[in-house]
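Question: Now follow the chain.
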Amino acid sequence: MPVLCLIANPADSELDVALAARVVKQVGGELNWLNHSIACEIREPKSTDAVAEARQIIGTARVDAALVPSENRRKQLLVADMDSTMINEECIDELAAALGLKEQVAAITDRAMRGELDFAQALDTRVALLKGLERKVIETIRRETITLAPGGRALVSTMKAYGAHTALVSGGFTIFADYFARRIGFDEAVANVLLFEGDALTGAVQKPIVDKDTKRERLTSLAAERGLSLDQTIAVGDGANDLDMIRIAGFGVALHAKPAVAAQAGIRIDHADLTALLYLQGYDDEEIVR
């Protein structure tokens, strides 16, 4: 049985009763509010292309539409990207800013996330530019510059409360991933290791690197370890190096992603925050752990 989800950003919702009613009138089905004026589901829509019809009605309103199956809807494994997904920034760009190189490095990051550059080569090029950056500067950036993406703690806390395992798997760096995984509440974190000589970066990263293959393989291995099918998993990210895990997960979510990534994902969330992943799974507001 399919379920059409309409989800808005809690900080600036444009989803109301009238909009939901217009969508139901067009696509058919039974309306159920998960969080009034934030998220609703339309059970068993009759339309053969409910998402396209819903988006046409939504128009320019900042409301996401996604179609999910009702079977195995609540997932038991979450694998999430970090930069621009669980946190708002790209850590490597902020490190470069401390050296006056943010514009140069950010341009490479953007192209790599769009899939226009080889990820490993782009990573090596950017890390080389960071040579000499001191650990204390990195820790200050981590503490003062990097911010948590809205809804992330609720997502992880709620899924863990209902028995899921949660993993942060990042093409970024352990000095950030380990720290933010603890703050958000993830069960584990996997990321690249920056190499230091004394308290300064050498300009190199430990090999092998965490890339798209690592992300896909960590998703499959964690599922196998827990006796789960891939249909019982959810993966979320924004960049080209997330696509492989997004494609194979039960729910593969492109969150505020580059257009080429969003176009290839099973589910795209352009406006809502990370609590959207809970509404996709059918959690209502009273079940969400905040």
